[in-house]
Amino acid sequence: MGRTAASGQAGARRQQIIDVAAELFAARGYHGVSIADLGSALGLSGPALYKHFASKDALLAEMLIGISQRLLDEGERRYRATVERGPQAALDALIGWHIEFALTYPSLITVQYRDLDSLNEADRRKVRRLQRKYVERWVQVIRAVVPADEEHARAAAHAVFALINSTPHSARLDREQMTALLDRMALAAVTAAA
Fold first, then answer.
1. Is 159 domain-assigned?
2. Distance of CA 69 to the CA centre of its chain
3. Per the domain annotation, does 28 fall within a domain?
4. Global pTM?
5. What is the SS3 string spanning the chain?
6. How many domains does the chain have?
């Protein structure tokens, strides 16, 4: 097996571990899941996980930094792909992306809210820095859509995040209906910032 194939397999295995850990952490909390629990869920011995992550803390850090980076990167990509069509198109793209993420990865949303404080200070600062960049893009776009000052636009962005990120607890409709409902509600929250 070539180095590239082995690297790809190792990356896929790391992602599988993150996905399983997210489900377990969401269900039981970060502190309620042991390395042995993770290993058992993956069909491995707990110590075999140390080949992929130095510790459970390192796993949580990669998980939470990774989702913050993914939200930012894809939000920026969608913004750039739509900004030429105007600020409303960019806002629609950002809302659509955040809804898609929340409905696809509800366990990551739960872990992010509940277990962020379990990160060490340096990793928590990195997550917060990525989150601030994401928020700032939203603030810029909201201010281009509605006549809102920066404070109201930032409050509206956080209100939209709270609304959409509540889906692990509130999604009672099928995905298509929930997407449409969240989209309407998020747009209403933004326009209320005016």
1. yes
2. 8
3. no
4. 0.89
5. CCHHHHHHHHHHHHHHHHHHHHHHHHHHCHHHCCHHHHHHHHCCCHHHHHHCCCCHHHHHHHHHHHHHHHHHHHHHHHHHHHHHHCHHHHHHHHHHHHHHHHHHCHHHHHHHHHHHHHCCHHHHHHHHHHHHHHHHHHHHHHHHHCCCCHHHHHHHHHHHHHHHHCHHHHCCCCHHHHHHHHHHHHHHHHHCCC
6. 1
Domain containing 84 equals: 56-191
pLDDT tens for 171-186 read: 688 999 999 999 999 9
Q: Within a 10 A sphere around the Cβ of 70, how many other Cβ atoms? A: 14
Q: Please enumerate in sequence order all residues whose Cβ is within 8 A of that of 31, keeping only pairs 6 or more positions apart, or say none.
A: 118
Summarize pLDDT for 29-82 with one digit per residue, the tens: 999 999 999 999 999 887 788 889 999 999 999 999 999 999 999 999 999 999
CATH of the domain at 99: 1.10.357.10
Q: Note whether 90 and 144 are within 8 A (CB).
A: yes
Domain annotation covers residue 151: yes
